Model the fold of this input.
Amino acid sequence: MVRDFILSYARLIVRHPEDLRIEERSLDEEYDEIVLYAHAEDVGKLIGKEGRMINAIKTVISGCKAKGGRNYRVTVQSVG
Done:
């Protein structure tokens, strides 16, 4: 559910949606890391000015903790 949301939301923002890719890693029993890989030109758009865009995504995802009990860390990295 979280992966689908991030991917759908990111596709609305970026110029190269075909380059988007997501990996999810379990860090421990309560924490997952979601890495969003995007075209180098789109990384800044996903992070936003002063991190506002990525923080908005994190805020929405923090609501998923109430349902599933997991914490998520979201990072954005460049594919090329």
